């Protein structure tokens, strides 16, 4: 479990603050996303977790152990149990795939037999057995990341940190890497912390997420909740222009997992049942893990507000009223 | 000794061939010594710099200053000015063995810079990755920085060794043997152009050989 309390970090060079008031709890077995635009501090926060960078105030505990207080040697020992993969893969170009994966174990002086067994097992797991003797420069981006994942897993870590691990990959490869991470998570119960700016990654792989803005937490919670709530930070992240909402009436946002075909009939049925025709201002369907989530905004006049909201609540649709731009927090 | 009494082949055998081996001996010994010492200079320079593995600005500044100072001496002046130091170490200031000291002293900082520059080219992300799986500082230097930069180090060493060859020829001026001394004494001062130019040819071939060999290894390792 990773517990972060009131964490604050400032750059020593100019005293500007990178992270402030960070409070998080990442449970064992979570696939947790730290999302935000570049410069939001997400990669820095990730590096605080394995002590690659330090923080000035607050506490960051991994399984009850305060990372800041670890001595050099303890920190090395601690890092054995925290694997990490990177955007640019960070493989040694002059070494073969096998040697790259073997490197951490060599550093920890495992026997040749142990290393051989583990490396082959992991290369099998990530589907790179046939490329064992290839050099990274002859591999595609996705293959390199698979090798990097194998390397990160050599010490059977409890936590895997992914720093923009899919940002340099095309969408299809991104998906295959995410599926691999999910598979490893399901099989070993490893905690995965993913730093990304791609919402697709969060939607596909993560169960919890935290949106960082300017070094602070803007929103946090289960991914499902965040998508249902559609907080402004999320919309900003998706780069969606602020929608111009009508000044009159009430703008209701409805988010719902589209389980069956009938869900698509909601508006037609509601209109018929309530004998009220309302405009749909916005609608989109996004993939959320294995489901589709529909997000709609409708405009309802004062007279029908209670009827509509009652109708939605009764049928377990998540809805909330959007306030006109500028007022919403 | 009047050289006129000998044929060119005899002169070659008597003077040029032994001189060639003297040069080779100086080149190899001071080359190995300065590579070894230069490695440590390069490692210390790179790990103590700002943001390095063992950041230490004071050590870095001092070493940097020494390296710059030694490198700014023309070799012939350096050789003469460190004579007391040479005597202290090898007991004499004349001859091949004595020449090894100034040669090593002169080339070590150059080698240091070569290692430093090669290490600098190693992607910092690799070092971070090595840290992330708990590699020690020594392991990072040897298993990551050194291993990744071998080709670049080889081409740098090649440069330095050719430089060193030039310096061995100069060392001839103060009593070390070797091709340089022969070219000067038997060739230049004796008005024997045959000897002088044949030594030039030997040097040209030697430089070309070192360069080709270096390029060949570079290609193999890259």
Write a brief caption for the model.
The complex is a heterodimer of chains A (329) and B (222). Chain A has helices spanning 42-49, 72-80, 97-107, 112-125, 141-152, 171-188, 199-205, 223-229, 232-237, 266-274, 302-314; strands at 2-10, 17-26, 31-35, 57-62, 65-66, 82-85, 159-163, 191-196, 208-213, 216-222, 250-258, 280-288, 291-300, 318-322.
Write the layout of secondary structure elements.
The complex is a heterodimer of chains A (329) and B (222).
Chain A: E1 2-10, E2 17-26, E3 31-35, H1 42-49, E4 57-62, E5 65-66, H2 72-80, E6 82-85, H3 97-107, H4 112-125, H5 141-152, E7 159-163, H6 171-188, E8 191-196, H7 199-205, E9 208-213, E10 216-222, H8 223-229, H9 232-237, E11 250-258, H10 266-274, E12 280-288, E13 291-300, H11 302-314, E14 318-322
Parallel strand pairs in A: 3-8, 3-9, 6-7, 7-8
Antiparallel strand pairs in A: 1-2, 1-4, 4-5, 9-10, 11-13, 11-14, 12-13
Helix pairs in contact in A: 3-4, 3-5, 4-5, 5-6
Chain B: H1 8-48, H2 57-72, H3 75-81, H4 83-90, H5 96-120, H6 124-132, H7 137-171, H8 179-188, H9 193-221
Helix pairs in contact in B: 1-2, 1-5, 1-7, 1-8, 1-9, 2-5, 4-5, 5-7, 6-7, 7-9, 8-9
Keywords (chain A): Amino-acid transport, ATP-binding, Cell membrane, Membrane, Nucleotide-binding, Translocase, Transport
GO molecular function (chain A): ATP binding; ATP hydrolysis activity
Family (chain A): Belongs to the ABC transporter superfamily.
Structural features, described:
The complex is a heterodimer of chains A (329) and B (222). Chain A is of the alpha/beta class. Helices cover 35% and strands 28% of the residues of chain A. Chain A has helices at residues 42-49, 72-80, 97-107, 112-125, 141-152, 171-188, 199-205, 223-229, 232-237, 266-274, 302-314, and strands spanning 2-10, 17-26, 31-35, 57-62, 65-66, 82-85, 159-163, 191-196, 208-213, 216-222, 250-258, 280-288, 291-300, 318-322. In chain A, helix 3 packs across helix 4 and helix 3 runs parallel beside helix 5. Chain A is elongated and about 75 Å long. The two termini of chain A are 31 Å apart. With 222 residues, chain B is mainly alpha-helical. Chain B has a domain at 23-176: Orthogonal Bundle (MetI-like fold). Chain B has helices at residues 8-48, 57-72, 75-81, 83-90, 96-120, 124-132, 137-171, 179-188, 193-221. In chain B, helix 1 packs across helix 5. The A-B interface holds A 50, 52, 76-80, 82-84, 86, 88, 90, 92-95, 103-104, 106-108, 151-152, 154-155, 161 and B 123, 125-126, 128-136, 139, 143-144, 147-148, 150-151, 221.
